[in-house]
Amino acid sequence: MYFTPSGFPILRNKKLVYLDSAATSLKPQSVIDAINDYYSHYSANVFRGLYDISEKATLKYEETREKVAQFINAKSSSEIVFTSGTTESINLVAYAWGRLTVGEGDEIVTTVMEHHSNFVVWQALARENGGVLKVLDVDEQGKLKIKNEKGKTTYKNSKLLLQNVITKKTKLLAITHVSNVLGTINPIKEIVVEVKRLNPKCLVLVDGAQAVPHMKVDMQDLGCDYYAFSGHKMLGPTGIGVLWGRKELLNSMVPFQFGGSMIAKVSLTETTFKETPMKFEAGTPHVAGVIGLGAAVDYLQNIGMEVIRQHEIELTTYVLEKLSGLNHLTIYGSKDISIRGGVLSFNVFDKSGNLVHPHDVAEILRRENICVRVGHHCAMPLHERLGIPGSVRASLYLYNTNEDINRLVKSVQNVQKIFS
Questions:
Q1: What pTM, to 2 d.p., does this model score?
Q2: Which ranges constitute the DSSP H helices of 276-304?
Q3: Active-site residues: which are they?
């Protein structure tokens, strides 16, 4: 147990079982206190005031940038751009880099397991600029398809995954680190190495929204070019996110938005912009959100990401064992816990093999104060690939326990009784 109920105010309701952390995480008291402290004692704009509370706000804001850089092992805090979340981070790259780089016949590669935020944006860019969108498939276990020389499926050899997909025309591979539906942990480091071998000029963007909250990520180790994630999935507030990018890439990109804060000089005929990362942070920033994100990073660091990952491995092993023991239930994704995060999507069927609609499952679980997500989870292409109209998703985090799993399983059994 890595927390006390008093540490997460919403969990003081003993009856609540929160299994929707892939959508948004709960907030510990320390994060709430940090935000309240800003609004109560030094609520001022940053970078613009020479008075005490503005200078304190600016200090806290930039302290968080440094904390985030250390948290993901970036080379410099100047590689950390604050955005509204993963979605804006990916769109920033698409607009500030993609629209000036991807042209007629150029290729963008993504996967069928992507969240819409890392799929639709590239689909739109390819259509608008005359590019070609290629989509990597998954196998029946929810792993990216990798073929060895004998045609057998393997997961460790990323070379043959990409050698027929990445070409000299490929400008970008956009890939998720952890699937928000299948829980699949993609071997990003190995994939990046092979992409760079096949085409050294091809960039790799990683959607890390489901990875950063749950495991240690290291920008120097992964070797990718861009990495995006959200604060609200890692115990922080909504409306704040991060784009990490290699400094030389960020420096070469044009601003995404125009306004205050990102200006070095404006005349009637010409404007120059501040250096990275400020040139991408136009307007009044989400100061409270950044400060809350800093408190969330502190909370996670104090526990240790290795400890959090081990806790989720144990929980995921337990829930897989319990749900796999039920008849008329299908779990999607690999059973290999070493390549699976704490995301579990499943469907319930009646004795005749008919699907129990995920919304009906969720309604019965709701009556037991169990919070899960149902639908496509912003991953329609993947659900179409799996041949299902939707699924029930239970997603775990550091505050979940075996008792939460037991209550989930008991409620699913109740669903089966009702629909039998």
A1: 0.95
A2: 287-303
A3: 378
- pLDDT tens for 111-135 read 999 999 999 999 999 999 999 999 9
399-420 tens-digit pLDDT: 999 999 999 999 999 999 999 8
Cα(249)–Cα(192) distance, integer angstroms:
16
CB 76 within 8 A of CB 70: no
In 11-131, beta strands by DSSP E: 17-18, 80-83, 107-111
- Compute the distance between CA of residue 341 and CA of residue 347 in angstroms, rounded to an integer: 18
CA-based radius of gyration for the chain: 22
Residue 71 lies inside a defined structural domain of this protein: yes
**242 strand-pairing partners:** 82, 229
Q: Which two structure tokens, joined as six digits, stand for 268?
A: 């009637």
Same-domain status, 111 and 224: yes
Give the integer Cα–Cα distance in Å for 72 and 49. Answer: 30
Match 């999607």 to its residue by tokens: 332
**Which residues form the domain of 46?**
33-302
Query: 3-state secondary structure string, 233-260?
Result: CCCCCCCCEEEEECHHHHHHCCCCCCCC
Q: Tokens in use for 107? A: 């290729």
**What whole-number distance in Å separates Cα of residue 129 and Cα of residue 321?**
48
- Quote the number of domains for the chain: 2
